[in-house]
Amino acid sequence: MNMENASVRSSTENVQSITQSTITLDRKEDDKDDEYNPLEHRDVVHPTSTLGAFFHLLKSSLGSGLLAMPAAFKNTGLIPGCIGTVLVAVIATHCVHILVSTSREVCKKTRVPSLSYTDTCEEVFKHGPKKLRPYSKHIRHFVDAAMAGVCLGGTSVYVIFIASSLKDIFDYFIPSTQYEVEVYCGILLLPLILITQIRHLKFLVPFSVLANVCLVITFGITCYYTFTDLPPLDNIDMVASFGKWPLFLSTAIFAMEGINVVMPVENEMAKPQHFLGCPSVLNVTMVFVAILYGVVGIFGYMKYGDGVLGSITLNLPEGEILALTAKILVAVAVFFTYCLQMYAPMDIIWTRIKIRIRKDYHNVSQIIQRTLGVTLTVILAIAVPDLELLIGLVGAIFFSTLGLLIPVVVETVHKWERGLGKCSHVLWKNALLLIFYIIVLVSGCYAAVSEIVSKYK
Question: 34 falls in which pLDDT band (50, 70, 90)?
Fold first, then answer.
């Protein structure tokens, strides 16, 4: 009996010893996770300076959307437009913040220096609640699809942008043959297919430089016309009809969201600790962007009132050389920006399908894939040939999904078993953001589709 008791006692002690050892190892592993700082383990060959990161973020948020802000203000009026610009800027900044913060925490957990947007989403689900782990690959595919949708939807806007500018130019020089915007979209198909066949990013650098120069000059000319001879405030609404407010939100989100380039910029910074915080690269950039967008929206709407078009460049005088120069330059800039924006979705799609295609057919397959991609954007542009409405539709569906929905879901899943804060404030905050996303998605799509139906029925 004593031997049995001794045996039981010995077995119990062994189990306790093993359990204690396991707990000790787990604590040591947790300590290692706590000690690992991903920012200190990044080995970037050509790191970006803090100032360089600021300009990269600024460029991602400034583009054709800036020229659409006066039309956005037309949908709300002056006062709601100012408030809405600040609101969208704050929400967009916060969503970038939670995405980057979550990515860094996941890097710490997985002990890797950096993760891309897509990798972050996959790893969050892979290390999240057990019931959600099997969906990690599906989330990756969804995020890739959202990325491709943002780029393809954005490039459809570019097609309308170029076509509308070309129509203005040719209507002035050849007034006897005035074609619809859809015709110019069709004419653009072949040139866009040809320029999109460039498959290496380094060969697109000259086009990027030229596009930036053209945009800067265009913006300067536009400001000259906008701030010259401002009319009294009688031709604008302080508060417009509530029914069109959703178009403002989706347009502003389209204009200001640059979240698809955030992770590459943050991952390649020489001092990534400067990206978040206060002051920080992110906060300073978004404050500057909000002010610039607000100024362009306010004064552009004050200048042209309810007659402002989807791009303020389309409102410039037809018979003046300076105005025509701006229209030509913006068409050239957006044309070259098109191939830059198409690079990412084409690369994402090709990565997914190339493993199913024999290597001998890779070249032909890429040509076909890129041709179909361009054709799809042109078809969408022809289907919705109104620049303002297409921007609203693309912003409501694609940009809001990538910039609002995904960061909110990713942070919630990541925090679910790691503490949602006092009174679960993270959960409540993200629930409000999710409601905001649904409002933007549903109301933005409804308002845009209603306008399209009433305009083209």
Answer: low
Count of beta carbons in the 10 Å neighbourhood of residue 74: 27
Helix 78-110 vs helix 281-304: crossing angle, to nearest 10:
160
Q: Which domains does the chain have, with CATH numbers?
A: 42-456 (1.10.4160)
DSSP string, 106-155: HHHHHT-S---HHHHHHHHHHTS-GGGGGGHHHHHHHHHHHHHHHHHHHH
Amino acid letter for position 82: C
Torsion 304-226-297-388 (CA) sign:
positive
CA of 259: how far to CAs of 37, 94, 301, 407, in Å? 24, 11, 27, 10
Extract the tokens encoding 366.
């890429």
83's tokens: 């408030």
Dist. CA 99–CA 325, nearest whole Å: 41
Q: Which residues pair with 48 in a beta bridge?
A: 269
Q: 3-class SS at 325?
A: helix
Instruction: Determine the Cα–Cα distance for residues 312 and 173; give it in Å rounded to an integer.
Output: 20
Sign of the CA dihedral 391, 397, 403, 404? positive
Q: What is the pLDDT of residues 125-149, one digit of tens each?
A: 998 899 999 999 999 999 988 888 8
**Residue range 365-402, pLDDT digits in tens:** 889 989 998 999 999 889 888 888 888 888 888 888 99
User: Distance between CA 137 and CA 145 in Å, rounded?
Assistant: 12
Q: Do 263 and 102 touch, CB atoms closer than 8 A?
A: no
- Between 59 and 31, whose confidence is greater? 59
Cα 239–chain centre separation: 28
Rounded CA separation 2/318 (Å): 106
Q: Are 161 and 175 in contact, with CB atoms under 8 Å apart?
A: no
Q: Are 309 and 388 in contact (CB under 8 A)?
A: yes
Residue-wise burial string across 340-367, b where 16 or more C-beta atoms lie within 10 A, e elsewhere: bbbbbbbebbbeeeeeeeeeeeeeebbe
pTM for this model (two decimals): 0.80
